[in-house]
Amino acid sequence: MTDDRADDRRLVEAVLAKKPGAFERLVREHQGLCWHIVYRMVRHPEDARELCQDTFLRVHQYLSQYRYESSLKSWIGRIAYTVTLRHLQKKHVAVVDIGDDEEHGAMLENIGDDFNLEAAWSDHQTSTALHEAIEALPPLQRTILTLYHLDEVSIPEISQITGLAGGTIKSHLFRTRLRLRDALEPRIGVSM
Question: Whole-prediction pTM value?
């Protein structure tokens, strides 16, 4: 068992044993990821706060069912994602751009194209345009893109969080980067 998994087990056992401060520690350690997932999908601070609270209520309620098959981070991320997805579905918000298609299927394995998101983010002019372009993305693509590139969450972990297959995640990343490239080229002359 890795150190992270051993830490997860100790924390979960402490929460389940109702040790003082254990649940608060769990929330402190994972609230950032929860907020990132929820806020990137709903983009409304009040809704995001409410959904994060709902997420941690569910974590507390179902923690005894956590089986250590994935990291605690991924398990909590999955709950946050599911809670938010249900919220968006109830509000009839499209989570994915219906216009997305699979025409780029053969190129999906080459997601490491020349566009360097981190370098673009560091340049102020590009950063502003990039932020606007990311905000215009549908919730699912925005969430996957930012988890992968900005939070450095691996594709297998994103798969555990979203329940999507790794190939589907790569497809979303690929198409989203093409979309960002198309949005940024005319605005700031970025040739990607």
Answer: 0.73
